[in-house]
Amino acid sequence: MSQQILNSIAESSKVIGKTWPLYTFVASNPLSGYENTSFLKAVTSAHKHFNANAFPVAKIYSQAWEKREINKEVLLAHLKENGLSESPEYYLNLIASEHQPEALNNNHIIDRIMAKWLSAFMDEGLAEWDMPFKTEGFYGAWRHLVIYDSEIGVTSLKEIPKSSDVALEELLKDYSENLYTNIFTHHLAALPGWTGYINHRTESNSEWQQEYPISLMDYLAVRLWTAQKLGASILPENSTERSNNEITKIQYVWLKAWEESWQNQLIKTLKTESINTKNAAETSVPDVQMVFCIDTRSELIRRHVEAKGNYETFGYAGFFGIAMDYTSLKDGITRKACPPIVASAYTVSETVRTDNKESLVAFKTKNDTQNFSNYFLTRMKNMLPSAFGYVEGSGVFYGMSLIGRTLFPGSIYRKNQRKASQIESICQPDINRAIQENDATQGIQLEEKVGIVKSAFDLTGWNQFAPLILFVGHGSDSANNPFSSSLDCGACAASPGRHNARMLAKLANLPDVRKSLVEIHGLEIPENTVFIGAEHNTTTDDIVLFDSEVPHTHKQLVENLKKNLLKAQQTATQDRLGPIRNSVSSAQHKANHWGETRPEWGLSKNAGFIVGPRELTKNVNLDSRCFLHSYHWELDTTGKALEGIMQGPMVVTQWINNHYYFSTVDNNTYGGGTKITHNITGKFGVMQGNGGDLKMGLPLQSLFESDNDMYHQPLRLSVMIQAPINRISEILMRNVNLKTLFDNEWIYLMVMDPLKRNEIYRYKKALKWVATSDKNRIVSV
Known about the structure:
By secondary structure, the chain is α/β, with parallel strands linked by helices. Strands 11-10-14-15-16-17-18 form a 7-stranded mixed sheet, sandwiched between helices. The protein is globular and about 80 Å long.
């Protein structure tokens, strides 16, 4: 195999990101391969390859302008700085008039054929009949079967090379090596959703990939052979698109003015709060402390919980520092439950509590019966001999079910919820090292357990302990929603956070862990402090406590907390859904209605990431627009805790932010399109209609109030950290990857320096800072 071909495939693959499957729909930057270049260059290059919008269209800017989300003085300053002297309205009209007719796809037939073969080969259990020869890999299976494809024309097995590497060498023999990257880039970018999923499968090395391998080389060999067979050009034609640099420049100016306008409002708010809380007296020990995920939806529920009692809340990445996979007792499937950028070090499963063995047997019996029933009914519905009779015979049953789910979705939801926490009441989580086959190692060492617990307190800046402490993961409920996992915890790889929360609570309750925390780290947890896991349902704002093992001494405290959490649910749903008559019932209705297009808004409107003490944000309504991570700079004497926050949670929030940004500015290319015409493919993805590219982003209904009115505001992430500016500069110097994200404007960074009277500075390239109180004062650190 030519090394030049391998190098060119590696280089061209940078134009595509990763398409995550529906069941673990992780938000990620579709242009992650471009992060080593500037944002402007990246989106310009992506526009060339994907023919996709890089910036909001004119009507989105117009809506922001009319709502005064873009400050006029800020915009005029940016226009002047870029030599643009006309009025804002003039430039809005100029952007709107720049109509670019959709380019005709000369490779439509090839794209359709490739989508057909990919959907058949990559199916993950949806199809009743498997594609033959799949164990030979994508190229091998295709080679055996393409001779029967009437769309290709008459061909024989002999004229098809036996392997993808040989095929590519033959196909490219008449082309110069310096054209390889251009050829591969063009063909990979033609179906970025599908090639992105190939990227995901090869890097994750899932069971499906191990059993039925596919690679970008296989894809390119099949595609280029198909193009040659159909008489299409392998080498992309030279683009005749006229230069659009002026419009791009104007669009970028509007975007930066919009972003700075939002930042200015945030700066004003936090500056006021820092003054108000500067001389605040030390509060008494709270009755309950609760640790929520940094998720933007936690901002709302934290406000309402704190208002209901003597409660203190914290923000921490929702996998709670346990890099783990979780094996479900319900279906036996193991799923990742930590950020994709973190390798799973542990596996967590359920073990029966000694006083609940009979309950577990009953649960397993019922669960096995239900699983078999689901399997049997699916088989009956999908198998050709029984399909028609099944539909006829089951019509009445499904008709009644549909009527019930349409007329009484809230009631059915409440009934189902009463069964939802059955496992947690009879089992306890058990942690083991993620072991290789034939490795006899079991369990994890005490020092590892201690390290997990201590990290949670270090990263959140803990300095006192309440009698009851909750680790609150989060999940979501929705019906008939292919994208349901996108509403679960992003920090848990689109899984609910309850398993991580329960595991951390169990570790923190262990006597030997507490003893070691004192002896080794001088961290003493009071004897009367009890930890429990919980879960916040972001669709209904219900918070469920997994309190079956709480000692009698804390029962009353727990009961009082449950009553107040119900009150918090009522006010939080009213805040989120508006002044409707029964907001809780309405939220439950949305969670279980099969026709609901927007069960909740997820992380739409996300724009900021604030790292600092709760006092900075406690008394303000941030409208669920900010990720909130607790941090106390004075307790982090080495800066290691802040470095961990910037390396992990900050990078993940940037992924989420870019995912929402690009899904909004071009929903057809980077997003999921409209839910109305979604067609689930192979259990892992959706297409629009019956073919075409695999959708790689969020659906239209998750981002827009209507086809024309935006809900999510496409702004790049603005990070605000309260810490000495020297500390952050040192972290950036040690972590070139983080510095690159800021230098290339994928993220904005602002710092509130407590050593300089909480003066706020904006980061500029090359470790330069600008004081917001004096924009002309550049500070080098």
